[in-house]
Amino acid sequence: MDEQLELNASVSNSQTLADLDLTDLDAVYLGQPYCLKYRGNFLRDPKAVALACERAHAADTKAYLTTPAIPAGHDWPLLTDNLRQAMTVGIDGFEVHDVGVFRWIRRELPDARVHIGNFGNVYNEDSAAVWHRLGATRIVPSHELTADELQLVTAASDGVEYERPVHGPLSLGMAFSCLLRRTDPSLPEQPCLQQCAEPHFLELDGWRMRSVGTSLLMGEDYCLVEHLADLADRGLTALRLETYFDSAEKINQLSRIYRRSLMAAKVEATDLETLRSLAPKGLCNGWHFGRDGRDYVAAGGSCVN
Questions:
Q1: Best CA proximity match to 286, nearest among 240, 220, 210
Q2: Is residue 191 classed exposed, middle or buried when 0-12, 13-18 and 19+ CB atoms within 10 A define those classes?
Q3: At 101, phi and psi to the nearest 5?
Q4: What does the pLDDT look like over 123-145, one tens digit per residue?
Q5: What is the pTM of this model?
Q6: Could you give the C-alpha distances from 182 to 38, 146, 278, in angstroms and in order?
Q7: Cβ neighbours of residue 61 closer than 8 Å, sequence gap 6 or more
Q8: Half-sphere exposure of residue 228: CA atoms within 13 angstroms, side-chain side
Q9: How far apart are CA 35 and CA 133, in angstroms?
C-alpha cells in the first residue's frame, strides 16, 4: 500500500491534544467546524494553537486549523485575528468550508495552504477543478460520494491533494442555530451548557442520528478500515479520522488500528472487533458503495447489518 498516505485525526481542544499519542498520526486538524462555543475550541484560543503547533511539530506531525462550517458575521473579527496569528506560529494549513473565508485567506494570507472541507460541497470534477484554480491545495470531496464517484473527482485536477474520511460519525447536515439550546423557535437561545459534548441520539424504526446542536451526525460510526487498499488506488493523499467529540484514549486506539491496517494492507480480526466495541451504535459504510448508508460492507463485498 502507498506509504505516503497521510493519516490524520480531528482534535477539538487542547486537553484532548495533551493526552494524545501522536506516534501513529501524520497530522491533526485543530478545532471543530460545528460551533465556536464548544469548550476549548482551538479557534478561540491563539495561544493554544501556538502550543499545539509546537507539540505537533516536535513529534514530526503536521497541524492544520479547521474553520467554522457556517461562520457568523459577529465571529469574523475573532476568526480572522486567530487565522493571522496561526500563520505566525507555523500552522501547516487551514481547512475552510465557506467561500468568504477562503477568499479572505487567499487575499490576506497568500502563502497559506488551504484545504476545502466537506461542507465546501464538492460533488463532481468540475467543482473540484474550480477550487483548484482558485488556489485550494487539498479538497475533501463530499462525504456521501460513492467510491466510483470519488475517483471521478480525484482524476479531475493534477497537483491538488484529496482527502477522504475513513472513520467516525459523519455529518448529515448543518444548521445555523443550535437545536440543543432552542426548545421553542419563538424563544431566544438559552445559555450554552455544552450539551453537545454528551451523546444525544434520535432513534426511530431502526434509524438513528446523533445531534450535536448545529449538526446531525450519523448514529453509527462510518468505517472503511477493510477497504484501505482500495482507497489507496483512488487518487487520495490523506485519510481522516473524524474524532471531534472523542476522547484522546479513543483517538489513540483508532490511530493505532488504522496505522497497522495501512502498513499491512488489511485489518486484523481483533482490531475490527475493537472498532466495533468503540462504536456504541455499530459501524456503517454503505454510502461508499452506493448502498443504504446504515449498511456495513465488509472486505469481499458481503454486507453485515
A1: 220
A2: exposed
A3: -65, -40
A4: 999 999 999 999 999 999 999 99
A5: 0.93
A6: 16, 35, 30
A7: 22, 25, 26, 27, 28
A8: 28
A9: 29
CA distance 214 to 35: 7
Mean residue pLDDT of the chain comes to 90
- The pLDDT of residue 187 is 66
The H or E element that residue 189 is part of is none
Query: What cell was used for 154?
Result: 480525484
The residue that leads in pLDDT, 182 or 229, is 229
CB atoms within 10 A of CB 292: 11
Compute CA distances 9 → 6, 241, 250, 266, whole Å. 10, 5, 11, 20
Measuring CA to CA, which residue among 241, 284, 267 is closest to residue 24? Answer: 241
Residues 75, 76, 80, 85, CA torsion sign = negative
H helix intervals, 207-247: 228-232
For residue 75, CA distances in Å to 80, 255, 265 come to: 9, 33, 43
Q: Look up residue 68 and give its three cell numbers.
A: 467554522
Q: What grid cell was written down for 222?
A: 462510518
70, 98 contact by CB (below 8 A): yes
Q: What is the pLDDT of residue 184?
A: 62
